């Protein structure tokens, strides 16, 4: 039996136990078996291998509910240009040359970066390919994740195959670290019939490979920008009267296993439907601002009782994987926009990045808080830093002052994947070298096509 | 002669020389004497002590144009409450017990934290007291700064004395590292007559202690919130028809030596006046969002030709000193609010945090860019990190992906004040201990008064 006792730190449980100072967490075979005061647990589990967390704060590993992990390869490739130009002139032409191997390398870079920022679960949407994929990268890094294959009307045949292989090869693998999802790209790129088909596909794949404790979920972009009704009209000649959520509901595809990302351009009716259908929302404020999409009505969603979690979006629309940055932006943005400093208090935001994130991925029985019986996904944050001093309130510091780089040690499924900021699972230096080389080759392939035109 | 050659890095000059890859910077007695290609300068200055900057990016030290440095002691003391409650119930009652020694300790903490985030110049507004002050703290840390004394109508006598002593004791001291300013708190706390008197005071102090190359400037909060006209009416029975800037202009107090912080609630006429009077603006987006003040019309200010620089505001309204965070928020916020992804491109934002900051403090002849003849205020940023990989564009990474913690080495006036993230001037561990103890004593003093009531 592998045993471990994290001792002497402040434990922010995100459960009914609240904050335990001079606390301890006991882990057996990857699971949390006890949480309490250090003095008591020290006696009870004296022989256990110990991690000293004095001066540190232990939180549940952060849950990033929206990523395109492989796209770290395009970080900083194009910024500050109109969305259409960004996609059509820069991102898509380069993405045409992306191979399975590139996806693997990009996802590896994101996996390492995520862990180094205290993120232990990542929900990622990208192309599932032969010869390399995001699941493989996450598995090597020891990162927990939901790996999706993104579906478009223009490639139904490839999608069907990819979805089957992804579910068969990866769902509930790596001691349950890896799950998979079905990811219709968006309502304007997936036609109504294909949308319904994908819903049916999800059901079938879940029946075959999933279980109530490990479901196959549905992950899609919803209402990222105001012009989606117009785009749907243009693409599929379908006219939309209400909002995008109302339209999706008319197709019968919404449900509690759906995570809708962005939800910027919502109607009041849309918010009501999201609540009724128990759809989960992934809020990506940094990306929404950077890509000039706008601001999601998060306070209204929360007031309506919708589960709202947080995401970074891809490393080329953010441009990092820092969930601490997303927490801070969430906490301050809605205050400023609505001129109400009581909106989105720190504790609510930390919930969104932990337990609400787990709920959004239907993974909250296993992760999202520090509780007996849950998997040991933990981030240990070093508070002995000038910007985290003096200390009045740990939650305030975690949301308003801490940075990804303050995370000292990370455990996923009870395994130490980073210790004193050193990744234990893979050689970071090699990953950086691979990423730089992969980017160079990708640019060379783009250039050779351009020259051949 | 002290000599130094920073060698082999990418030099982001923020001057007409642009970006120099495999570049070098040569320093003699605190001044930059050469900037160019490494290969050439290596031969020319072969005997100089060398800092290896391979894999790193050298930028001008960041200029933080609005701080209340001592307030780091209240970081996280109260968040998420209405502005009035925040000030009246939390901040002001505690501040009543603040001593000169506390101010010194708080400023020392901010100074260390600023340097660790690549900030080399800080413009700070707080109470100048006997027995300890911000200037002393900055001097010990080796940080460049403009130290202001904040003035209120209710304490004119103390203000007059403090302003005289501050200018006499500190202006242009520490090899020119420390300058001072006159800081009327705001238009609603300084009555019209006192405002005019302070303008006159500034002129006199500048004549006595300042010089064209080292002026004493004027630093104040301007139009932070929409309700300032109402507050002025209530406080001084003065009725205001236009905006706050128009009101200040009617008093004849505006000029090119004025740095106006926040400028959130501006009229079109206000913007015109700011340009005409050559007033400089300090934009503090993180604080403005957190305190629910709103969003400054920065794109309009820049379009009108106003110099706009960046600031963090105090560590209890932000809650950190991270200028990288402020750069990213500036770059994404205005895009999102105006739904225009071309607003505030990365290079413009980096200018605001460097050369425009120097201009705003009338310090641009000496700092703000990497140019021959300027003081060597430099931040060396380590790019060998997952979140700064791969590399397409250094400026994009600096604004959208880099964090305070990526700063590796910092020079101010040619002196290495941080090397490999170790502060060389003071013992950081001791500063943290002092800050924590100082906070405890401050709370104890507050509690003893409360108990005596």
List the SSEs and their pairings.
The structure is a homodimer of 453-residue chains.
Chain A: E1 3-12, E2 19-28, E3 31-37, H1 38-44, E4 49-52, E5 56-60, E6 62-67, H2 83-95, H3 100-116, E7 119-126, H4 134-141, E8 144-151, H5 156-170, E9 178-184, H6 192-209, E10 217-222, H7 228-236, H8 244-250, E11 258-262, H9 268-276, E12 280-283, H10 285-290, H11 298-303, E13 308-310, H12 323-338, H13 346-353, H14 355-360, E14 378-382, H15 394-401, E15 407-412, E16 415-419, E17 422-423, H16 428-452
Parallel strand pairs in A: 1-4, 1-5, 6-7, 7-8, 8-9, 9-10, 10-11, 11-12, 12-13
Antiparallel strand pairs in A: 1-2, 2-3, 5-14, 14-15, 15-16, 16-17
Helix pairs in contact in A: 3-4, 3-16, 8-9, 12-13, 12-15, 13-15
Task: Tell me what you see in this structure.
The structure is a homodimer of 453-residue chains. Chain A has 453 residues and is α/β, with parallel strands linked by helices. Chain A folds into 2 domains: 114 residues, Urease, subunit C, domain 1, CATH 2.30.40; 299 residues, Metal-dependent hydrolases (TIM Barrel). Chain A is 39% helix and 22% strand. Chain A contains 16 helices and 17 strands. In chain A, the strands form 2 sheets. In chain A, strands 1, 2, 3, 4, 5, 14, 15, 16 and 17 form a 9-stranded mixed β-sheet that branches. In chain A, helix 9 links the parallel strand 11 and strand 12. In chain A, helix 3 runs parallel beside helix 4, helix 8 crosses helix 9 and helix 12 packs across helix 13. The longest helix of chain A is centred in the C-terminal third of the chain and has 25 residues. Chain A is globular and about 70 Å long. Chains A and B meet through helix 3, helix 10, helix 12, helix 15 and helix 16 of A and helix 3, helix 10, helix 12, helix 15 and helix 16 of B.
């Amino acid at each position: 039996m592998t045993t471990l006792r994290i001792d002497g730190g402040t434990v922010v449980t995100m459960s009914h136990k609240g904050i335990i100072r001079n606390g301890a967490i006991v882990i057996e075979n990857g699971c949390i078996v006890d949480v309490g005061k250090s003095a008591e647990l020290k006696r009870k589990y004296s022989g256990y291998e110990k991690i000293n967390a004095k001066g540190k704060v232990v939180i549940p590993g952060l849950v990033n509910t929206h990523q395109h992990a492989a796209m770290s390869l395009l970080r900083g490739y194009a910024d500050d240009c109109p969305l259409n130009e960004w996609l059509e002139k820069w991102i898509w032409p380069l993405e045409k040359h992306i191979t399975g191997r590139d996806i693997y390398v990009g996802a590896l870079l994101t996996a390492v970066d995520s862990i180094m920022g205290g993120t232990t679960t990542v929900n990622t949407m990208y192309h599932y390919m032969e010869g390399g994929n995001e699941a493989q990268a996450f598995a090597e890094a020891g990162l927990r994740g939901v790996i999706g294959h993104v579906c478009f009307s223009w490639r139904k045949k490839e999608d069907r195959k990819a979805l089957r292989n992804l579910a068969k090869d990866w769902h509930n693998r790596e001691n349950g670290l890896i799950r998979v999802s079905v990811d219709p790209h968006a309502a304007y790129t997936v036609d109504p019939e294909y949308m319904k088909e994908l819903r049916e596909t999800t059901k079938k794949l879940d029946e075959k490979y999933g279980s109530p404790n490990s479901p196959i979920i549905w992950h899609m972009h919803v209402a990222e920008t105001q012009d989606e009704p117009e785009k749907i009209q243009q693409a599929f000649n379908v006219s939309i009267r209400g909002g995008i959520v109302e339209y999706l509901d008319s197709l019968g595809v919404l449900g509690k296993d759906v995570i809708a990302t962005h939800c910027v351009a919502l109607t009041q009716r849309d918010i009501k439907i999201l609540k009724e259908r128990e759809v989960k929302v992934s809020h990506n404020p940094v990306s929404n601002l950077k890509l000039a999409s706008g601001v999601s009505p998060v306070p209204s969603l929360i007031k309506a009782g919708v589960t709202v979690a947080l995401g970074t979006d891809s490393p080329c629309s953010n441009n990092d994987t820092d969930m601490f940055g997303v927490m801070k932006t969430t906490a301050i943005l809605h205050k400023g926009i609505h001129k109400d400093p009581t909106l989105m208090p720190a504790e609510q935001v930390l919930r969104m990045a932990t337990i609400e994130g787990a709920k959004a991925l239907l993974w909250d029985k296993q992760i999202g808080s520090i509780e007996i019986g849950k998997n040991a996904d933990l981030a240990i944050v070093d508070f002995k830093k000038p910007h985290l001093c003096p200390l009045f309130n740990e939650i305030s510091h975690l949301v308003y002052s801490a940075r990804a780089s303050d995370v000292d040690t990370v455990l996923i499924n009870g395994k130490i994947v980073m210790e004193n900021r050193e990744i234990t699972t893979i050689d970071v230096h090699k990953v950086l070298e691979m990423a730089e080389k992969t980017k160079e080759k990708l640019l060379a392939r783009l250039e050779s096509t351009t020259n051949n035109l």
